[in-house]
Amino acid sequence: MLSVLRIVAALVFFAHGTQKILGFPASDMVPPAGSLPWIAGILELVGGALLILGLFTRPVAFVLSGQMAVAYWMAHAPQGPFPALNGGDAAILYCFVFLYLVFAGAGSWSLDAALAKGRTTA
């Protein structure tokens, strides 16, 4: 179930990156290159893809957890104290799911596990 949680969370997160960077699904929110939302989109796209594969899971999840904490405090918290009203509930959930992955790892269905298995049998 750890692998399923990682894959599903990463797929949904990856979709945020494809929307910001690739314009799919279609969105009027394509940030200018180099802006903070553009950098967030790159992290969502690349980090999401790495988490889907379960490659470099712990360091990638650490970076993405931090990204979501920053996103919450910069974009959502100033709009009010209640996550359900300020739109920050997803950022909080991603932050803590990714933080969990830092400590739990990728799970058995991952490239990290396959690479570790290859190292112990060689």
UniProtKB/TrEMBL annotation:
It is a multi-pass membrane protein. The keyword Signal does not apply. It is found in: Cell membrane. Coiled coil: none annotated. The keyword Cell membrane applies. Keywords: Cell membrane, Membrane, Transmembrane, Transmembrane helix. One of its GO terms (cellular component) is plasma membrane. The chain crosses the membrane at residues 33-53, 60-79, 91-111. It comes from the Bacteria. Belongs to the DoxX family. This is Putative membrane protein. It comes from Rubellimicrobium mesophilum DSM 19309.
